[in-house]
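User: Sequence recovery, please. Input:
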């Protein structure tokens, strides 16, 4: 039986120490910490656990400590209370910890101005930034990306590497599901006007429903919160639609509550489809049909793309775009279209 790897008292752990304890090659450790989707999940998680236990700091980052690096990465999210961001936060946190970085979490309160101000004020505090569902304009994002390392999540950009969650593809799946149930009058319930993903979902919805010859309507914009659900439900009912595709699950859950108050049955009178498959989407009444994707993995991939910009150890990763797949999870909030009298 081979001896356990020697721990050198008073010296920093090396990539070889991590590799020896994990029983893999040093190149596998490097890939697991910088390009996680290229390593088997079980192996990657074992390496991350060992790296965290050893407090392993990659050599390029260790050099950075004496050259102005903070070894901190800032994650900016529009609303930290939105459960959609919980898995992103967990994914980025775990990946950054394994790579020897500290995560700084900032809630920008759905404000493009606060987001831009945070980027300016934290240039010396953070080595790089991950912007989840950024509300920045193209011009502001371009200026920011020219001055600091940035990766966006769910915000297409030619100025910074991007992790995209393919919710437009899930919108198509949702439409196919609803039309298979006989729905021909469908409403899109929109989110914030500043949301890039909202614009993409609406465009997909509009293009696909035109091609299918459906009768459609659009209501909103609404804040992506449960408290906006009552107004959204009332507006959707006025359109005469028998089904709704809703910007996010929080808004959809708020709509379910309002429809129940009004005596409108879901799904017998109206079907509802949400987006994100947040924690609790399967607990509401009825359980919510929604568009789901690997959100935690999106956070991990965003970290790997950001670290590729920060040091020679990760220069091999040059991806500018990663697309996370989505699928429709069918639950009790969708059903056959009501029969017209």
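Assistant: Recovered sequence (341 residues):
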């Amino acid at each position: 039986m081979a001896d356990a790897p020697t721990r050198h008292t008073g010296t920093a752990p090396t990539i070889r120490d991590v590799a020896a304890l994990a029983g893999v090659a040093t190149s596998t450790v490097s890939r697991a910490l910088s390009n996680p989707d290229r390593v088997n999940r079980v192996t990657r998680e074992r390496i991350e656990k060992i790296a965290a236990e050893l407090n392993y700091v990659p050599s390029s980052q260790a050099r950075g400590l004496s050259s102005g690096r903070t070894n901190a990465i800032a994650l900016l999210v529009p609303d930290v209370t939105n459960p959609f961001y919980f898995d992103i936060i967990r994914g980025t946190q775990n990946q950054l910890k394994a790579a020897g970085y500290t995560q700084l979490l900032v809630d920008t309160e759905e404000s493009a101005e606060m987001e831009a101000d945070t980027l300016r004020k934290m240039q010396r505090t953070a080595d790089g930034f991950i912007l989840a569902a950024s509300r920045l304009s193209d011009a502001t994002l371009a200026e920011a990306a020219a001055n600091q390392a940035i990766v966006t999540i769910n915000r297409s950009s030619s100025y910074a590497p991007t992790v995209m969650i393919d919710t437009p593809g899930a919108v198509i799946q949702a439409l196919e599901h609803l039309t298979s149930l006989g729905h021909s009058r469908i409403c899109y319930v929109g989110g914030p006007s500043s949301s890039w993903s909202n614009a993409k979902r609406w465009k997909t919805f509009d293009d696909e429903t035109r091609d299918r010859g459906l009768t459609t309507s659009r209501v909103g914009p609404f804040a992506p919160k449960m408290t906006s659900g009552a107004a959204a439900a009332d507006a959707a009912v006025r359109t005469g639609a028998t089904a709704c595709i809703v910007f996010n699950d929080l808004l959809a859950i708020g709509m379910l509550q309002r429809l129940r108050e009004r005596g409108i049955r879901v799904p017998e009178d109206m079907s509802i489809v949400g987006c994100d498959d947040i924690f609790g989407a399967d607990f509401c009444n009825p359980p919510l049909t929604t568009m789901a994707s690997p959100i935690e993995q999106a956070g991990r991939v965003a970290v790997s793309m950001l670290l590729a910009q920060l040091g020679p150890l990760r220069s091999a990763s040059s991806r500018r775009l990663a697309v996370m797949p989505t699928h429709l999870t069918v639950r009790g909030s969708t059903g056959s279209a009501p029969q017209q009298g």
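The mean pLDDT is 88.
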